[in-house]
Amino acid sequence: MLMVSQLKKFDAYPKTVDDFRVKTFTGAIVSIVGGIFILWLFFSQVTLYFSTDIHHELFVDTTRGEKLKINMDITFHHLPCAYLSLDAMDVSGEHQFDVAHNIFKKRLSSTGQPIIEQPPIREEEINKKIVKNENDVQGCGSCYGAEDPARGIPCCNTCEEVRNAYSKKGWGLDPSTVSQCLREGFTKNIVEQNGEGCQVYGFILVNKVAGNFHFAPGKSFQQHHMHVHDLQPFKDGQFNMSHTINKLAVGNEFPGIKNPLDEVTKTEVAGVGMFQYFIKIVPTIYEGLNGNRIATNQYSVTEHYRLLAKKGEEPTGLPGLFFMYDLSPIMMKVSEKGKSFASFLTNVCAIIGGVFTVFGIFDSFIYYSTKNLKKKIDLGKAY
């Protein structure tokens, strides 16, 4: 009992006798409001505890020898699939002509609806022979002067082989004069698709150096160290480069990423032109709460439009959609950070104690102010 009586001296919460406690109406109102305020702050802390903070760090990018995966989904509203060619090149000297691997094309009507219900055509199949008949030439067909056995082109049996042979020579080709193209319906396809649109989607792999990739009409080739597109098959066509970039991402996506070119639409009304997007790529590492790491990229972009010719005039350059990209030497690390339970408990205790103390002071102020006011009123009545 002596020990218990000694321990009572350390009681930091001495109790008063119930007879000396005064309960008031204003005290009850203040208590209810304070309780509601504590509950609101408590649930706010619970929500905050289960949320994650995003931390950003910047440091020099020391990675090398990697490839960039560029995911794309672009709709050309008034340019047929038969016209379009995708090319990529970079400052290291690597060129990718008429990229076909992992690229798909879907024909669209003038209103933007798919024309035929069938799987989309892979790019390398778009110009291949699809019709066979008894007039097909067997053996060695003519390349129309572009034969080059030294380069492995002794003959040409398909329209695509003739076009490749002409490209390696740096010559332009009129498909209407080539029997292989007439037999395979290449010229007919161009005429039939005139006025249609095209959705191009898929991805390309490029070196992690500055470069560009672009969509332009005509088959591309290199002549005298210059990048050239053969527009002769489409001499009667109109190159309207109006487009919608449904998606353009560099690398894998992660939660919260924003690609500034997604859902961007540009319409060409004045004539024929060149759309240019200058992209600055920032290498990014995303680290989730579970420790998973995603190596990807973010980018910023500026844009420019160059009018090449008014309606009815000959273009002074190559109409197309160009993406020029460069890489930042700085890498960003995006990390998800959670909150500790100890921090949550500390905040909850601070909320309860703080609100209880503040509202207690407020209640005391009201109580003593009211009490003093009543005394003055009673004193005035006495006189």
From TrEMBL:
Residues 143-363 form the Endoplasmic reticulum vesicle transporter C-terminal domain. Its main location: endoplasmic reticulum. It is found in: Endoplasmic reticulum membrane; Endoplasmic reticulum-Golgi intermediate compartment membrane; Golgi apparatus membrane; Membrane. It comes from the Eukaryota. It is a multi-pass membrane protein. Keywords: Endoplasmic reticulum, ER-Golgi transport, Golgi apparatus, Membrane, Transmembrane, Transmembrane helix, Transport. GO terms for cellular component: COPII-coated ER to Golgi transport vesicle; endoplasmic reticulum; endoplasmic reticulum membrane; endoplasmic reticulum-Golgi intermediate compartment membrane; Golgi membrane. Pfam families: COPIIcoated_ERV, ERGIC_N. InterPro entries: Erv, Erv_C, Erv_N. Residues 7-96 form the Endoplasmic reticulum vesicle transporter N-terminal domain. The chain crosses the membrane at residues 20-43, 341-368. GO terms for biological process: endoplasmic reticulum to Golgi vesicle-mediated transport. Plays a role in transport between endoplasmic reticulum and Golgi. Belongs to the ERGIC family. This is Endoplasmic reticulum-Golgi intermediate compartment protein. It comes from Dictyostelium purpureum (Slime mold).
